[in-house]
Every structure is written in structure tokens, then in C-alpha cells.
Amino acid sequence: MKRQLEERCGTDVVFDDGKDVAIITRIDPALHVDGFTIASGDSNEIIIAGSNIRAVYFGLGKLLRTSTISPGKFIPGKWRGTSIPDTPFRGVYLATHFFNFYHVAPINAIQDYIEDLALWGFNTIVVWYDMHHFNGIADPGAKPFIDRLRDILARVKGLGLQAGLTTIANEGYANSPPSLRADQTFPGSKHVRGGYGVELCPSKPGALELIDTWFEEQFAAFEAVDPDVVMIWPYDQGGCGCPGCKPWGANGFLRAAERVANIARRHFPGARIILSTWLFDSPLNEGEWAGLNAKFSSRPGWVDYILADSHDAFPAHPLEHGVPGGLPLLNFPEISMWGMSPWGGYGANPLPARFQAFWDRIKDRVSGGLLYSEGLYEDLNKAIWAQFYWSRARTAVDTLREYVAYEFPGCNVDDVVKAIHVLEQNHRGFTVKRWRKRPAGDAGSKLAARAFVDASQVLPQHVTRSWRWRVLFHRAMLDVQRFRGHPYPNNIVWLALDELVEIYHAGRAEPCVRPPTRRRARTLK
Q: Is 293 helix (H, G, I), strand (E, B) or coil?
């Protein structure tokens, strides 16, 4: 709360009536899990009670977003009452790889951002020890990376949130034995399901034992954090298409995943296991969903949740045939990559209408979900999904308006919201190669840019300099340049892209997560 007020109001805060306001927080175990209340106390007291520590943060977030905040002034919001989340699992997976923001940004910046996510109602943060970056756990680069992940998860636990690790069932190090490697010629292996070529084949003698060894080492390194959740992944990357492993999702994957789950529970006795079905039967129906249903005809003891989703439409099988084993279902919204390459390379990627359509189809079937995040640029998308999970009936537009009013106080909310809708309608043609060709069907890029320019004239300087404003502002300005049809990016474009690189800490990021550079563009002409 102190950091939020200092960032938004400055160090000297005057309250609306000139009197100090006492914000009192307390734990009330009688409340529903993760629920909170906000009540008025004596005089200028505001009492926030939560069922646990994280619920207090959820209540603080509600208070902040319903308050009027400006430089030097804080007018507490008038909302009072009790709020209880509709779903129990509300998470974000921070993709800690490719030298993206989560991989390399200063640890205090990551920790502050996790606090921001908690204020929106997320209760779980998951990270990934991506093996393919290293030659074993003794690799000189592995220890500092593990230390970084532990520091991130320690802050997660300190906020009372659930900490998690994600894994690939047949994950391999860069120096995995070639003789034990998987056959990755299965459908989609070179596109959406792809791997690094170092994953192992569970059907080859010795491979499962090596997987056991690697996960024993990895999980031992995280025992001090005691993760609450371990997620086990089939594809992207991962998988094996050999005769002994296919169909992967109902065969080799399950053999490896159950062993990983058992190792996880030995090291983290209270951990819940999420079994991902990401990209099952995609692009072809290989019998993975049907096979999983057969294997899980009764509820398996080693799995607590089934996670399902895809790059586009939610898989039909669990909606039409039920969830295998009768397990709770989670979704995995792809908020990062869709329709933009590099991911986040041109600024913010708000997609409220797209996500509303997805949510309307599944909202009564899921127990929450876990977002896939590659960086800061999808911050607005995170807020939308956080509020979907909190209240199934809440709309993306409601959250969009609340986000704009809270993050950009003093702007014309209607105008900025309309501009963001234009950004979504113009969300296409984002590759360096396509700068040569003017995209068709501009939905109003100049009007959207004008709304952001006008808002910049009235917003406080600390807001217009904030990364949340800059990623949206630059996206609007870049859209104007794209739809003008310049044959190649100009200096206006390069200045915007250079600032995005700085915001993302992407100086040495891999091309898929780094805004385009002049050198990269020259190689593609």
C-alpha cells in the first residue's frame, strides 16, 4: 500500500478532508477462502479483513481501484461490503526463459510486479526452470538461475500466494544423451508443438530413470520454497512420436508425468499436481483425449487438476465429453503471443473482445485458470482474466474501464477505452517483413493515436512516464505508422521500439521476445 501511494501520489499525501485516514488490516478466518470485507470504522478508519494474508491484498486492491488517486492526494473509495471469488484457482505463469523480462529484469522489479498482480486477485504464481538453457544442474549458469527463481517464489510465499513450478514430462538438458532423445516427427512438431530436440523418449531403456534423476535434483533445489503447485506439460515443448510413446497424451506422457508427480510429492508433500493437456489432438486427432478419458475412467490419485486450452478455440472434448477422471478443469489463456511477432514487439496487445468470447464459452465449466505471460505488455489482459476468475459475470469491458480509470487517473476514460478497442481491431500484420505492405482495413489508428496524445496532455507526468502508459501509447503510434504504409520503419518507429526494449529489459533477449532492431530488420529486407 505504501509503495502504491508513493508511486501514484508522491511521498506527501493529503487526504480528502485534510485528516489522516487509518487503514486497518486484519485476518478473519471465518470469511470464505480468499474473501475479504471492507468496512468503515470509527472516525476515518477503513477496515480491510481477509480470510488469509493474500485476501487482505485483494481487499487493498479493491480499495485502491475504487479510490481517487492523484499527485499529492488520496480520496478513499466508498465501496463497502464483502467480496468472494467465484473460482478457487487464479494464477499467472511467468515464462522465465528466452532472456525476457521475467528472466533478466532486476529481481525487485519482478517482486513489485507480483505484488501488483496480487492486488488484482491472483492467488498463484508459477515459474519454470527451463532445462534446455543448461548442461545439467551443475552448469555454471544453472545455480544463479535457480537462486533467482527461489527469490521470486519467496516473495510469492511472503504475500501469502501459492507458489508453483511448471515442468515438461520428458524435459531434457542441452547435453541430453542423443541416444535417449525423443522422436519429434509427430504432427505439429515443427510448429505449435515443437521442441528443442533435447527431450527424452520414455520408451527407450534408461530414459525414465534419467528423467527421475533430473527431477530429483531440480525439486531438491526448491525444497526450501516448498511449492504449492507443480504443473506437468505435454507439448510446446515436449512430446515423443515413436511407436512406443504414441499417442503421446495418453501413453508416453502419462508414464513420465506420473513419475514426475510422485517425485514432486516426495519433495513437496502438500503440492497439488496440474496435468496439462495443452495441444492434445492438435493439429490432428490422434486419440489423445479419448485415450486420457479411458486411462482416467476413475479419478487418478496423482492428479488434482486438468488444464486444457489451445492457441485459439478452447478444446471441444472436455466440454462435450466431460473432464477425464471428473477432475476440476483449469484453462490456460494465451495472452502473450497471438497475432504479434515478436511477442509484445510493438507494445501492448489488449484483446478484450477476444477474451470475452473465450470466457463466455467456458466460464461455467472451469475452476479458474493459469495465464501464460511472457512480459509486461499484456498487463491489461492479465487484469481482464483476473476479474473473470473473481466474478464469472464480470465483463471484459467493465474491467477495461476500471483499469483505465485506476492506472491513468484524469484521462477521458471513454476516449481511451474506445482507442483500446481500435488497437484490438487493428491487431494483425505484426512482423518485420510486413512493414513493406500496408495492412488493409484500418479501424481508426489515427483516431486512437489522437486519444492517447490528448490524454497525455492532461495526465500527470508520472503516469505518462509509466511503463503501463508507454506500452499502450507506443502501440497506438506504431499502428499509425503501419497503416500509413511506409516501405520500411522510420526513425519514429525505431525510437518507439528502442524504448520498448528498455522497458522490457530485452537488450539480450531472443528474437521472439525482443522488439525488432535495425539490424534484425535489415536482414529481412
A: helix
